[in-house]
User: Fold this.
Amino acid sequence: MERFAELLDRLVLTPSRNGKLTLLVDYFRAVPDPDRGFALAALTGGLDFPAVKPAMLRTLVTERMDPVLFAYSYDYVGDLAETVSLVWPHRPRREGGPAPTLSDIVQELATASRSDAPARMAGLLDRLEVPGRFAAIKLATGGLRIGVSARLAKQALAAFGNVEVTEIEELWHGLHAPYMELFAWLEGRAAKPESAAKALFRPVMLSHPVAEGDLEKLDPADYSAEWKWDGIRVQVTCESGISRLYSRTGDDISGAFPDLMEEMRFEGVLDGELLVGDPTEQTRTFGDLQQRLNRKTVSKRMMTDYPVFVRCYDLLQIGDRDTRSLPFAERRKLLEEFVGRLPPERFDLSPILEFEDWKTLEEMRRNPPHPVVEGVMIKRRDSTYVPGRPKGPWFKWKRDPHVIDAVLMYAQRGHGKRSSFYSDYTFGVWSGDPEEPELVPVGKAYFGFTDEELRQIDKFVRDNTIDRFGPVRAVRADRNQGLVIEVAFEGINRSTRHKSGVAMRFPRISRLRWDKPTVEADRIETLFDLLGD
Amino acid sequence: MNARDLLHPRPEGLYCPPGDFYIDPVRPVGRALITHGHADHARAGNRAVLATRETLDIMAIRYGEDFAGTAQAARLGETITINGVRVTFHPAGHVLGSAQISVEANGLRIVASGDYKRQPDPTCAGFETVPCDVFITEATFGLPVFVHPPSTEEIERLLKSVAQFPERSHIVGAYALGKAQRVITLLRQAGYEKPIFIHGALARLCGYYESRGINLGPLEPATVEGPGRESYAGEIVIGPPSAFVDRWSRRFPDPIACFASGWMRIRQRAKQRGVELPLIISDHADWTELTDTVRQTGAREVWVTHGREEALVRWCEIEGIAARPLHLVGYEDEGD
Assistant:
């Protein structure tokens, strides 16, 4: 358990992706089965112990120490799991037997009932040290929140076994904790696991962005084009009566979309965009779709107000027949027939765009007919469906980003290589009375600039600090002085979390406007106009 | 004699009326008794100073030879009488030269702990329990959440990380007096023999520790003039905590920020400071050490100073020991 606890502690504080990968790979290398498999399950959200609740921990700890001292402690630390792990009365290990392993803990918690869960949890905490107690509590109450996605864990597995991450994704849903056969394969001790499980995820095919000069070399006649819809990529899988909805990285998101699942009564695998609306009437914004994302449960009301549908653009399987090795044009024909038989309020076809040359397509890309279009997709007619991101067959050609001029308001120190630089910037635009405008923060950006520009902004921040809050500095920003930055972003949503009422998608700094007076920065109304509703 | 007549707080610091002296005054006074060399306890400008040899030397290094009108060295365990008040310095285990001060008159003994710890520290004399009537304790880490692990385990974590990320440098934030030298010594005891790179602010105090017989092994200045940029990869660099924010840290390749402090027990603290590898190494007593020490002194009354007083006062009440917070101003609650 100690090694798992140490891994969690390091992951929480390691900001860099490569650093996290190193920690994960080293852990998989150093820790034997079945512990590493349970750790993998914990990291990928595959463990659930409904019998343990946070309130129970509070009761357990106040039975063991003065409630006033506990209250002072909790007040100071602010996190229940951490407080309990720290104040839990220490008992020498030999009293409670040897320290439990991660597998022991999983076993103990998985078999606990509502009534004996408190005693079991207390027994475990008695036998662990501080880091182990923290890890056990986080494990038991769910939600590790350590900044590691299931995707990153799978990438670490791929690096550990020197295989493609798509291979792991394809196998993933047929495997179960503690993943012994997976590790055996990754270590070269056994063949790749074969799964008899149905409705598994098929790794998706991805595209490259169109770069300068790319298209000139290509013959438009070889390519087919479609709108690029601003939803989320999904894979709809129905096999032998089992249905699953997967995200593009293979996370099973079926639970959040019962309205769609109900209509998934066919045998086949579709690739498409999940959107909100009724395709026969209207396609709604990404902001509306967000209402439905990242939810464990969904209310009736939510399903009525924000119904989802899939705009299909590829077909990977019909019945028993794997169609991925067919050329795109043939798959498309099969797709058209297939979707024609599905309920029209839940499934429709992504239309094919007619164009003669790249210039025509460029025109269409620049002037999309619909606000939920974020560009065009270009696919080679003879391309087979291959997992990953092959160079050549598929391109995405995005609409140009929106830009606004904003004023730098706060700067925060970065991490790792940037730990001595103020590199995370909160910027604002003008709002309120035009005579007496005020800056209101509208977003945060931490990339888009060169190293040289970073040094310049850092110097500006240090020279113009007016207040400090821990690692954050407030900088001079008023009508007479301040730094104007041009911010590029992909779109804008309504947000109740931000004071301004809007949140930008994918904001980054596109230019530093040292030349521009702050009064000439944009006003909040410019952003409201982009909401598209 | 009432304990408050022997020692009580004044704006200048803790004052002893019959002896006419102050302990760790925050403003210049006639006669000052100083527990240790940290800047919030040892200040310049007093007319007469009584402290251990090491504390006097450290004050001279920090403030110049003329840091006080006159300076007298107190030997540990030796009693000095000042205006009829018997004063004895005892080791506090905090940093080199640190002492508790026992003040005794008319059969009443008060011990002012200064800052102290009980964990073994190879760079200074270990804490000595002094039985007393009133114990004045610090409470920097006066909450049950603070239980410091053995410092040797923390050093092992640092060395493991150095092995795990050989392409990066590890910058350890550590206070220039005490913590830095302790971390270096712990590294040496763990078998780390390579040169350790130190920030300029540490150089004189490290030199002084060496002159007092504490072997710190090969140290090299972490300066641009030194070895080339790449050569810091895989190295350990030690600097004062403020140096993280400083442009100084930019010369190191993709550094891992480490911080040696008792505060690193709390994850959010580490996160806020951008620390990637927190090392829970403290020069102050943790909760267990504080409560054990209070018990061991046998004091019937406890006065609690700088830190989180309320929890320790509450604990004393539960234990049936009279306790009150002693509101002294001018000391750092956060230093470690």
Q: What stands out?
A: Chain B has a mean pLDDT of 93. Chain B has two domains: 3-145+284-325, 151-279.
